[in-house]
Amino acid sequence: MKAEDLGKKSNQLITIEPDDLIPLPYPYDDPTNEPPLKQLTEEQRARYEASLDGIIAIGIPKPSSKEEEEGFVKKFISGLEKLLTPENNWTFLQPLYHSLEYCVKCQICNDSCPAYIASGKKEIYRPTFRAEVLRKIINKYLKKKNRLLLKLTGSDIDLNWTLVARLGELAYRCTICRKCAQVCPLGVDNGLISHEIRKIFSQEMGIAPKELHELGTMQQLRAGSSTGITPKALGNIIEFMEEEIEEKTGKKIKMPVDKEGAEILLIHNAGEFISWPENTEAFAIIFEAAGIDWTLSSDLVGYDAVNYGVWYDDIQLARIAVKHAEIARKLKVKKINVGECGHAHKAMIVIADRVLTGELNIPRESALPLLQELVCNGKIKLDPSRNNFPVTLHDPCNMVRLMGIVEPQRGILRTICPQFKEMEPHGVENYCCGGGSGFAIMQSMNFPDWRSAVSGRIKLKQILEVFQDVISPEIKKYVCAPCSNCKGQIRELFNYYNVNEKCGIFYGGLVELIVNAMVDIKKPFIDWEWH
Amino acid sequence: MNTFLAILTYFAYCFIVLVYTIKIIKYLKLPVHLRWELYPVIHEEKYQYGGSCFEDVNWWEKIKKKNWSRGVVYLLKEYFTLKNYLTRNLLYWIGLFPWHIGFIFIITFHILCFFGALSMVLGISISPGSQDLWGRILYYVILLTGVLSFVAGTLGSIFIIINRIVDKNLRTYATPLNFFMYLFTLIVFLSGFYSWYFVDPHMSEYREFWKGLITFQFVGVNTATMVHIILFDLFLIYLPFTRSLHYITRFFAFYLIRWDDEPNIRGGELEKRLIEQLNKNVSWSGPHIESGKRWSDLVKYNG
């Protein structure tokens, strides 16, 4: 298949069969046990574009008229034009320009893509494929090269509704982990191409996965959090967490909320409050034990660090980043600390740095270095023998490859987990969990199956490999993933393959391990209960 | 013919310099973008394992001076070894490496011929028996770079054509123009090789030709040498229309994108440039965007 075939008539361009997928280690080494990907219903196929790979991530409705079809294509072209202008896309124009102009198609990046490799090298998932499609469209429809030149440059592509819709879906088969960009000797970034295609769909065509846009950034700006937690609900949750801390540890902790002038405004991914309250509780226990001057915010958006805009829409990204900064300014805190959430780290600390000007440019940092300081400098008393079980570390791409926070989490684990073992590869060369760029929260139709079987496959392989000598389910093992989205993905991945039951592998954050090792807490903090 | 050859050569050099300059200016004038670095960032103190200043508490108080030279060394080393390809795709490297070495040396060869000619104008003889050490060194260096370039470039062009045809991953994405480029380079290198081997074993014709260009007293050269000079001139004219500028833009991509970790400091120069961008009007027309407003107004949104 070639890039120009993306718009060709076909019921489905590719099919993913269990046999195509790369093999997994024991106890998943029998491919006949591989669960088949859920098939779409006839009704779903009739309503939505599903002809790329039989998977639906966005759910683009099929057009009802010729005019609708043409309007869709025209809108895409107008978005593409805007993407290449400095006013509309100053945010990424230079990196985009470089990647469009200077890729020599050496394909050196291919083997670093977890989705491409795991799928058995399906052509459409090749990191260079999307870029090639986009380049051909630009050559023919924007640069309007003549026919001979189009032939010579291999840019004779026909734009139609199907091609545009498939390209939109295809932008959501890349986790934007940017491992491909890391290995490119010329600095080309094919992950960015996915990001930019997503922007055309959102910023011009108003199309984005509902979990990212309607229920994501829009809900966050409107109601306070992408989880739907309102400030009032937050109050109840905090009360619940305080009670739970007392129940689990015997400690009476009052979580500071909206404390003006505090040293640190701690912002968590609000998903933690609902799915993993033990993580936010652990932060409170550690900060109180260390005598940190900190606060949470109950202001709209102020209690949810997520910024899904980073994955699909620059304007939404900027809106949320500004909100976070405004809240910190209002509270007169000295700095913002981001909890265990990878994309929030990258969005708030790094990317938003060039959106926040003047008084909004408030110091922002990761919570991990502070935790390392507390753990490794003996500011809290810890007993590593309490964590005497096999532990491995998953590196969230956003914190590690995209921010260079590599050592703090390792320093902590080496100090408090006697059986800590690295998976391979790790650090800045890690593999994505498969839930990056919003995948972990996207629940559209059969997309979760694809996410587990394809994009998360290499991560599962790594986890199984590192625990291979203790793979028996009787031995409890822990994957430390200091990122809410990665945890969400690992949870789904483990559920899909029944990993907890078959192998006894559990997952969780970093702070839970720290609290589990605290000497003044009688009962183990980690309860090994699957949720 | 002598005059034609001279004019073509002047034109080719002026053309490539002009078009490359325009392209470089266009690249550098693109607006400052959001941070999008990838680690390891080479000037970071902890670059060996990919660590960054974000590993420190209050990192903004500890920003260290960047080590710019480390990046230059890294990129130059990569130019001359193509190590990334060597470790990830040996077969591809076997063609790519001599091909690139061919380019590097053919450019060096022509620059050295110019200096050789300049030395001759100044009265220095360029030959193995020259009384001047400089003349002897130049003679051998010109000969060596020329021969190396022709041999490596010829072999590289052949290997790379085979590679692009045999390797399915490469073939799928290859265009007719890619093959035109490889064939073009093949005949450029091959013509140079022929001229050296059969006609001009001392490469003296190139120096005479360049001397003519410097003194405006154009001289004739043997047909084989002339063919190579014409082909090389045409190649220089063709280069700006290819992706060849990646030799230079690669530096920009690494310094301005992949390693660009410059923090935005209140009141700083970067902030001024950002404010300028944020004051630009946006014409995106998604339903959640008020088209026509400035970035700075659009971000004040309450859902």
Kindly describe this structure.
The complex is a heterodimer of chains A (531) and B (303). With 531 residues, chain A is mainly alpha-helical. Helices cover 45% and strands 5% of the residues of chain A. In chain A, strand 3, helix 17 and strand 4 (364-366) form a beta-alpha-beta unit. In chain A, helix 4 (93-101) packs across helix 10 (190-204), helix 6 crosses helix 10 and helix 20 crosses helix 22 (484-497). Chain B has 12 helices and no strands. The longest helix of chain B has 34 residues, at 133-166. Chain B folds into 2 domains: 2-258, Up-down Bundle (Fumarate Reductase Cytochrome B subunit), CATH 1.20.950; 269-298, no CATH class. The mean pLDDT of chain B is 94. The interface between A and B is large, with 90 and 82 residues.
Question: Which secondary structure elements does this structure contain, and how are they paired or packed?
Answer:
The complex is a heterodimer of chains A (531) and B (303).
Chain A (H helix, E strand, L loop, with lengths): L41 H6 L18 H18 L2 H4 L3 H9 L12 H5 L8 H16 L4 H6 L8 H10 L8 H5 L6 H15 L8 H11 L7 H19 L14 E4 L3 H5 L1 H14 L3 E2 L13 H4 L1 H18 L3 E4 L3 H9 L13 E3 H10 L14 E3 L13 H10 L30 H9 L1 H10 L10 E4 L3 H14 L1 H5 L1 E4 L2 H6 L15
Parallel strand pairs in A: 1-2, 1-3, 3-4, 5-6, 6-7
Chain B lengths: L1 H27 L39 H14 L1 H6 L1 H32 L11 H34 L1 H6 L2 H24 L4 H12 L7 H16 L7 H13 L10 H10 L16 H4 L5
